[in-house]
Amino acid sequence: DQQVKQNSPSLSVQEGRISILNCDYTNSMFDYFLWYKKYPAEGPTFLISISSIKDKNEDGRFTVFLNKSAKHLSLHIVPSQPGDSAVYFCAADTGNQFYFGTGTSLTVIP
Amino acid sequence: ETGVTQTPRHLVMGMTNKKSLKCEQHLGHNAMYWYKQSAKKPLELMFVYNFKEQTENNSVPSRFSPECPNSSHLFLHLHTLQPEDSALYLCASSRLRGNNSPLHFGNGTRLTVT
Q1: SS3 A16
Q2: Contact A51/B100, CB-based, under 8 Å?
Q3: Chain A residue with the nearest C-alpha to that of B106
Q4: Mutate to test the interface with A, among B21, B60, B105, B109 (most CBs of A within 10 A)
Q5: What one-character-per-residue DSSP string does chain B give?
Q6: What's residue B40's pLDDT?
Q7: Which of A14, B78, B87, B89 is surrounded by the fewest CB atoms within 10 Å?
């Protein structure tokens, strides 16, 4: 049973607009959430994280929102740039193990 | 050199071969991991080492054998693999578990079993 789900396999956004990537989880024991970015032929690169005691964390163009009651996590990228085109994975941590989603492929159109 | 380095980047092996994957981290981390990524599936944890001690083995078949000689190096020894073992194998490292510390991944080894 998949505990972290990314229901949108792909997303296309115009350059300069906002990209919103979504992630849902089922385990209420998760206390740390992360987003990773992956280019082809490379490993996932850590992007941004959030602790379960917060509901928002911002780093430059990237903001992660956590809605614990809905068990929902989202990543906002503003403004989107062509170099943001990649696969984005969300992950959640119980402190013992990380659980990953299947990824959303983002294409930013120039 | 910084980060997490994996070698080889690509590996093709027959089902009777024995080969090893190597991982080295230069981040001063204490925990190292092997993950498997198959098409359309989430990353799947295989093994975890904290301070060189194996703390997790997620029901991985014995044809995969990990080795962690020190906190900076991790190996995955492969023997008598099956074609369904073809996948991307990712090594990762982190600070000690339980500290809200992200994983840092290498670029992976793309394994094809023929």
Answers
A1: coil
A2: yes
A3: A43
A4: B105
A5: --SEEEE-SEEEE-TT-EEEEEEEE-S--SEEEEEEE-TTS--EEEEEEETTEEEEE-S--TTEEEEEEETTEEEEEEES--GGG-EEEEEEEESSTTS----EE---EEEEE-
A6: 81
A7: A14
Mean of pLDDT over chain B: 91
State residue B2's pLDDT score: 65
Of B42, B97, B102, the CB nearest to A96: B97
| Separation of alpha carbons A25 and A2, rounded Å | 8
User: Are the Cβ atoms of A41 and B107 closer than 8 angstroms?
Assistant: yes
Question: Would you call A32 and B100 a contact, using CB atoms and an 8 Å cutoff?
Answer: yes
pLDDT digits (tens, 9 = 90+) for B64-107: 999 999 999 999 999 999 999 999 999 999 997 767 889 999 99
Residue A49 and residue B102: Cβ atoms within 8 Å?
Answer: yes
Residue B21 · residue B11 · CB < 8 Å: yes
Please give the share of chain A, as a percent, with pLDDT higher than 70: 100
